[in-house]
Amino acid sequence: MTVSVDTPPARTAPPPRPRAERRTRLLRRVSPYVYIAPFFTLFAAFGLFPLIYTAYVSLYRVELQTPDQMEWRGFDNYTALLSDSYFWTALRNTFSIGVLSTVPQLLMALGLAHLLNYKLRGRTFLRVAVLLPYATSVAAATLVFAQLFGRDFGLINWALGLVGFSPVDWQSGTVASQIAVSTIVTWRWTGYNALIYLAGMQSIPGELYEAAQIDGASRWRQFLHVTLPGLRPTILFTIVVSTIGATQLFGEPLLFEGSISGGISHQYQTLGLYMYEQGWGYFHLGRAAAIAWIMFVLILLLVSVNAAVARRRTRKEAGR
Question: Going by DSSP bridges, is the β-strand pair 71-72/60-61 parallel, antiparallel, or unpaired?
Fold first, then answer.
């Protein structure tokens, strides 16, 4: 005789609630925007709005003493700048100081990074040490270099006198003053760019160096044919950043002699210093805003040229 036991039916999961599903789906869609909202809020408040307002102010005649009294001028601020000889002097000085500071700076940073990439004793200390000039205050560094480049009691002229050269007036001469300002910029930013290049070198696969070594390539050949091609995006990045920094150069020429005119004959006045002179020296806020927008357009043009050159080089290498 068999006894049959009735098993209870299996419990089935309740059907999902459509309202809860919609809420979960909505949260998944909205949450990424919530995470990035603080950045865009701060950018709109402190980046986008000042940029747009500066373009608006550049179309008016506004004085610092009476900022609420605005007189429409259209593009007269821009045409007045283009007819001002001091504007073209500042533009030329910005370009020459940028070249004098950027080219040696990046070349020295590349060589320094190549040395730091080797297994040296105390290389961690050396990597930190090269970053110390970047951590130094602009004011402190410029004041120290202003003393070093002093005409009568400066250490640079004393060293030149030891080898038979006459003293150089570093603050009055055009070329000499621009070299002095460029030296300050180069000293501050070489270590920073060296660490960027060092990070790029460490991302290059070691197998490429091993293959080049097996083929009999020397270290110089490895640097030319392995390191430099691998660092091309990093070099482009440092060129763009250094170009932007050179266009906005302000602190070093201002504190080198303490004059907003950039020397007696404006020999090292940059666009940033010229903008400060027009806005806070002569109280012409509208003209200063126009200079700011010219600097912005100039930066866009320089970055576009660098990107176009890099893109053309990439296409040429891809076609080989």
Answer: antiparallel
Please report the sign of the dihedral spanned by the C-alpha atoms of residue 298, residue 303, residue 306, residue 311. negative
In whole angstroms, what is the distance from residue 89 CA to residue 97 CA?
12
Residue 189 and residue 139: Cα distance in Å, rounded?
Answer: 15
Tokens linked to 102: 């950027």
Q: Does domain 84-281+289-318 have CATH number 2.60.120.10?
A: no
* C-beta of residue 150 within 8 angstroms of C-beta of residue 143: no
Domain residue ranges of the chain, discontinuous segments joined by +: 84-281+289-318
Q: Tens digit of pLDDT for each residue in 33-88?
A: 888 899 999 999 998 999 999 999 999 999 988 888 899 999 999 999 999 999 99
Identify the weakest region by mean pLDDT among 50-59, 222-231, 282-291: 222-231
Q: What CA–CA distance (Å, rounded) separates 63 from 46? A: 23
What is the per-residue pLDDT for 8?
Answer: 55
Q: Report the largest interatomic distance among the alpha carbons of the chain, rounded to a whole angstrom.
A: 126
Residue 291 CB coordination number (10 Å): 25
Count of CB atoms situated within 10 Å of the CB of 79: 12
Partner residues linked to 61 by β-bridges: 71
